[in-house]
Amino acid sequence: MEDKYISLAHGNGGRYMRELIAELFARHLSDPSKEDTLDVTLDAAPIGLGEGEPYMTTDGFIVQPLEFPGGDIGSLAVNGTVNDLAVSGATPKYLSLNAFIEEGLEIATLDRIIASLAAAARAADVQVVAGDTKVLPRGEGGGLYLATTGVGLRPAGVDLGMHRIAPGDRIVVSGPIGDHGIAVMLAREDFEISGDVRSDCGHVIELARTAMEFDGLRFMRDPTRAGLAGVSYEIAQHAGVTVRLLETEVPVRDSVKMVCEMLGYDPYYLACEGRAVAIVAEQQAEALVSTWRELPSGEGAALIGRIEEGAARIVLETEIAGERILDDLEEDPLPRIC
Amino acid sequence: MTSARTWLERIRGLPLPDSVRVMNVCGGHERSITMAGLRGALPPQVELIPGPGCPVCVCPEEDIYAAIQLARRDDVTVAAFGDMLRVPCNAPKAEPRSLEQAKAAGGDVRPVSSPEEVLAIAKAHPDREVVFFAAGFETTTAPVAGLIANGLREGLPPNLSVLLSGRLTWPAVALLLDSDTPGFDALVAPGHVSTVMGPEEWEFVPKKHGIPAAVAGFNPESLLAALYSVLRQVIENRPFLDNCYQAVAQPGGNPTARAILNDVMDVTDANWRGIGVIPGSGFTLQEKLGDLDARVRFSIEPEEDRKRAGEMPPGCDCARVVLGKIYPNQCILYGKACTPRKPIGPCMVSDEGACRIWWASGVREQAGADLVRE
């Protein structure tokens, strides 16, 4: 492409827009070796679904800054949606992509982000088969907003959900929490501190697939906004149980802890973008941790707590065996993180 | 290093009297105590009382009102530490009652976390007056003094001024100890303040008042070590000032920071919201700084006729919470009319406010009558 920056003309439906789509989006997202790849000549794409129950989900992405250590809005837009399918037990197959681009965005930046999005899609083995671009006047968007809708297939006979959670079940997390939230916050440079925290942005498909081989698996969730506390709160409320988390067992990187202490954040509420939380029968919890630790995406997996009979709340057992209640998130601790 | 659990075991092994009330001065300590669940883990005889260490909570109402009035001006940007933004004042109903509301109404209010950010804002907007509303204790006031001292050498942007609401912590504890009912038998002294000003500032607690004291850091180990120390002092009737934060809080504190504070600020009598004037408890900018002081530049005068000027909001018991006279959940507004979502009193706003900390740790019930200590 000859232009350096996105202009309103890139959204006008004419030659500029066709160029942008063909030379930038399709170049990264179309894979001629695949039969069901993106075809920009179509108004709507056929999707072969095959065996299983179709699942669909959608998500919007407004993270600032657009690029941060460990990821960017492109990889986030794939993983965020793919992970919602994966933890529901479905294998992600297809994505749609909406890009709302602000006039003035550097095309080189857009190119990097869409390349990263395409790489994330390949890693997750999903095809972006439909898409749309719109250009917003300068000042009306944060550089780039993305929205993705995902379709996946869940094998017949899988039963996952809050209804299966019972007292005695164990809680397993696939790795350290809070990396994404802190990485994005540090990248914003609103604070006079720096650190080497990288976002955990990635897909959890392998984690979900291996977990589903355990018949004692009750429920999975990706702890994104509101973090581990948010997921735990939903479980407590909907399953009517006490969620007991053990402070000494929940993996949090020292660098994340340090930033949290400096700024008064609580890591339990910070977003992850490549972690899975599983509720599993007590007898299979250790085995699930071992299985996950075999995977690159689950190296830091840990057994972090249990489900108990009692009031619908989260009890955090502290390192000195004291207790405190983790409550539903009241305020947004970090703006625009996903 | 001795672990938190070991300290806890040692405390449990002490021959404790029926009741020991330990006040912690610092909001950061209250946060660590509450978040670690220390109250539930300690023997029942030991009562931990949150004290006056929340700068946002004691920031005078009239200063907040003044900052809001500045933020309402078209030509002024107000920068303030983030937790000041939501603190309500008693402005008339038609006007914004917090900096956050002033911002929503179109005022230019910027939350900052350091003086350097304010400097950057002032440099980036030379056409606007930038006022740094700096409320805080010694730990926060020292960097503000640093900004000013640097500026005296290298020049400050002419559009920058400071609305200072700096306070010293020890005079508030002295006020309690000088009263007939201090309400505590031992003191955990603040770690960060001691790091800046030196632990010696707290010598008066054991020496003048015979009350055991220990400086503590902010992790459970350090806090439990300090608790163990003061409990032993109580048992042995041997009050002295212990330092359980030695690696950081060293004798004499931070001489550079203290020198800079002396260079640009004076210590004066100062108003604490809901509590009143405490002698020698406030920092003011020295006269030589002229209209770098926003009170001079914008002719901010004490008000006389505004309703409830200087007071806590109606019904709010923050002042007694700050003085350790009641627990947060003994205020009738706690969790009812006053929550972090719709705070009425400053103690429910700040991360260092006892009400906010208790709420964040899940305390939802109001206390029964048996907990009232007065």
Q: What would the average pLDDT of chain B be, to the nearest integer?
A: 93
> What is the subunit organization of this protein?
heterodimer
CATH fold group of the largest domain in chain B: Rossmann fold
CATH superfamily of the largest domain in chain A: PurM-like C-terminal domain
The number of helical runs of chain A is 8
Structural class of chain A: alpha+beta
Structural class computed from helices and strand pairing of chain B: alpha/beta
What is the total number of structural domains of chain B? Answer: 3
DSSP helix fraction of chain B: 25-40%
Textual characterization of the structure:
The complex is a heterodimer of chains A (338) and B (374). Helix content of chain A is 30%, strand content 24%. By secondary structure, chain A is an alpha+beta fold. In chain A, a hairpin with a 2-residue loop joins strand 2 and strand 3 (71-72). In chain A, helix 2 packs parallel to helix 3. The model of chain A has no long low-confidence stretch (mean pLDDT 93). Chain B is α/β, with parallel strands linked by helices. Chain B has helices at 4-12, 27-35, 38-41, 55-58, 61-71, 99-104, 115-124, 138-154, 170-178, 191-197, 204-209, 220-236, 255-264, 294-297, 318-322, 354-360; strands at 20-26, 46-53, 76-81, 108-112, 129-136, 160-167, 186-189, 213-216, 241-244, 265-272, 276-285. In chain B, strands 4-3-5-6-11-10 form a six-stranded mixed sheet, with helices on both faces. In chain B, helix 12 links the parallel strand 8 and strand 9. The longest helix of chain B has 17 residues, at 138-154. Chain B starts with a helix and ends in a 14-residue tail after the last helix. The mean pLDDT of chain B is 93. Chains A and B meet through strand 12 and strand 13 of A and helix 1, helix 2 and helix 3 of B.
Short description:
Chain A has 338 residues and is an alpha+beta fold.
